[in-house]
Sequence to fold (535 residues):
Amino acid sequence: MTTYHSQDYDQPTAIARRRDILRSGDGARWGVGLIACCLVLAVGCHARKASIWNPDRVPAPVAKIAAIAQKGQQALEVTPADLPFEQSPSNVSSPNRVDLVSVEVDSSTSHQSPTVVASAAFLVESTNSPAASYSLVDLEELALANNPAIRSAEALSRKAAGLQNQVGTRPNPTLGYFGQQLADRGTDQQGVFFEQEFVRGNKLELNRDVLRRTLSAQQWEAETQRQRVLTDVRTLFYEALGAQQQLEAIREFEAVAKKGVDVAIERKNAEEGTAIEVLQSETLLSEISLAAEQAAASFRGAWEQLTQVAGIPGAKPVHLESDERIQDSVSDWNAMLEAMISKSPEYAVANAIVCEKLAILKRQQAQYIPNVSTQLGTGYDNGTDSGMINVQLGAPIPVINKNQGNIAAAHADYTRAVENVKRVRLSIGSRLAKASQGIEASSAAVKRYNEEILPKAKKSLDLSEEVYRAGELDFLQVLVVRRVYFESKIKAIQARAQLAQSLAIVDGMLLSGGLEPSQDFTDGDGLRGQSFGGQ
Fold:
């Protein structure tokens, strides 16, 4: 590169030497260097802005689990984290108590997913302390803190919030360098330009409206997932509790059966009974022992499923606290259906999707409105030894592509979403009819067993044992009475468990599938790309 001294810079000489510099190609390199510096500076400023951006956060509600720690097990290790929105209540258990609120979200926030760590060691019984027992509330809190499907559903809500912010962002400007006729000395033209695309048709605000509806749907989907988990936990808890109560009843009756064997042996030794009576007593005892093994296996299976849904696999079985459900009289199932639909997060999801599809239809109808691209450039023309300014303005002409296909597809999606709302309503009604049938049948069985069958069977058992010891009753009659009482008590426990499970399903808005994946209603960043496509 040629160097010049300050004394050589009189004006005519400076102009001549500047022309020499441009002709030699140094001017082009200087222009490129200038543009590169501007670009580096712009990128650096943007990076610094991004690094210091720290929006306000809303603390997420964390389930209180102190009651579990007070029972002797190892406390849960919970690290609170922030969520981008305040979620709907997650501790509801009955359609009469649910109060769900759709929360508008500040789409400009972005947060990391919460970290919740729960150890399964709290379920291991200590050899130096009494065996722990756990209630339904304890297991519900564990499930809400550990179930991965809930965390996944909340992550989808944060994804929708991020996309809502992204789809409404204006396009970046373009800063560049241009050079023409660089190989022709003395006639080259060089300069810089600034280019910007202006989005018309209110497309960006329509984009935000679409993702706002999507975010609402994802929030309700997260609440739906919580209800699914709670329903599964409750139904499995009552299944395990029923198996536990059956096992306790069998063990209790096993003692009676053993006494029957002893009495039969005593009567045989006293030559008042026969060997057949002894064999029949021992057979009944074997049947009861087998029933105990089957009940224990049922409890272990239900417990294993329960720990999987609660997100604590491998936890050892412990004693479950009794949580008998009291049936509320339901005189009008149609009124119950309307109340459930008004509170159902599943139905709210379907309605939110209708709003989303309608917003997408409006967005596609505005797509054909062309964007405007502008460019402003300035430079120097060596051929005329003067500066120059370039201005460009352009927009596509919507004479061929008016987005007709996307509009028709969006209208079809909207129609499908409207029909899906009707489908969900009918589905809820169908499931409620099935659940109501189970509730009424189980309730009648529980009432009949508690008020009539069990008291009579117990009184008959006591009288038969007393008369049998006195030698006034045939052994086969005693055996029949024992078997009837045993079977009646087991059936009564099963009826109570079925009633509690049916009520839990209704309380859980008829939702189940706590480990099923949540639906993702986001369409990615396609709307923003379509906004800048010009067509």
User: Anything to note?
Assistant: The domain at 58-169+201-373+397-531 is CATH 1.20.1600.10 (Outer membrane efflux proteins (OEP)). Residues 224 and 345 are 5 Å apart (CA to CA). The two ends are 48 Å apart (CA to CA). The chain has twelve helices and ten strands.
